[in-house]
Prior knowledge:
CATH superfamily of the domain at 280-437: CBS-domain
CATH topology of the domain at 280-437: CBS-domain
Number of strands: 18
Mean pLDDT: 83
Largest sheet: 6 strands, mixed
Low-confidence stretches: 395-407, 423-438
Amino acid sequence: MTENDHAIALSARNLYKVFGRRPQDAVERLRAGVPRHELDGGTTAAVIDASFDVRRGEIFVVMGLSGSGKSTLIRMLNGLHDATAGTITVNGEPLTGVSDGRLRELRRDRISMVFQHFALLPHRTVAANVAYPLELRGVAKSERLARAEEILALVGLGGWGDKLPGQLSGGMKQRVGIARALAADTDILLMDEAFSALDPLIRREMQEQLLDLQARFQKTIIFITHDLNEAMFLGDRIAVMRDGRVVQIGTPEDILTDPANDYVAQFVQDVDRARVLTAGNVMERPRPVIVESAGPRTALRTMRDAYSSASYVVGRDRRLIGIVTDRDALRLLRRGGSALSEIVRPAPHVVGSDEVLMNLFVPAIESQLPLAVTDDAGRLVGVIPRVTLLAALGPGPNATEELQLPLPPVPTQVIDELLAEGDARSDGLETTGGKETV
Length: 438
């Protein structure tokens, strides 16, 4: 087994699921190129030749409309549906073609599931529901209930352990379902339309909590949904299904910006791009950029060549230090100064490369320069001009609007005259009544 194999939590190869008469014959016809709708009456191909790998610790979303085969697929992944053809392995061990006893062991130890309609035991307390997987493993009652209370606190239900499911709201019931799956402590967590029965506000809250829990526990999650925005928000990668087939697998950005076919393009055309695309997806090469050790003459030449009235300043290690303006550089040069550190101002707005675009509108409006984008080490990796931000969200009436400083840039000829004179005391700025004018 290679190092890459160790990074794969679940692998599916050439999966088929056919319901009805003579399923094996239907598989052979599908392999020969017969369309799904031409199969014999009473025969339905729910999943057709599906192959994919799920990486350890990722949220892998399977997305599709009703009838696309996604719910059948997830039931195959924990053995609730036998595969008509193809194989599934979990951590390198086969899940397809094993005995019933082995399948029960895999469900108990390797794969747990959160259902759309909660599937709680109505006559057991919340704590007893959460502790149920541990009861199946023979864990002592006191130990499993203590563990249940710990996990309930993590999902925001501390103190609710002695309640019955009927006393809870829908969102609270789904938290219990997630807590039960976490208590099972399996390698893989399957979630079948887990949030679709919830009100929109509760649904968003649950999505955010799932990401918080994932950051803490680093489970491998396979999440089924028909909601594109939910898929884009949650998924590290997304598999798009249509008519039983997986038609594209990629990151949310891949799916949104490079759809594999017209079906995927139509599917994603109404997605809220501002919640999906990040600064790193749309940033441009930063220019102009000046190294802090450069003098005012270099700064002025750099800004002049870039037709800019200000520039970002970085250290030798590319860490962002701040900004300088052409006016400040001119004043520094007139008084004979040489250290840019005297005139560097704090960068007005700095964003991380993983910040979603919806959080960038106000900073873009307020910023004197295109937004600076930095990595985790504080290095300047790109910039986002306002026009780029607008273009990333689609054309509009302001798509060609330019970002300007509050003051217009110093005319190029003024800078040229000053630089050409080669004298730090050059009278490159005229004065009237003691005030600088350009």
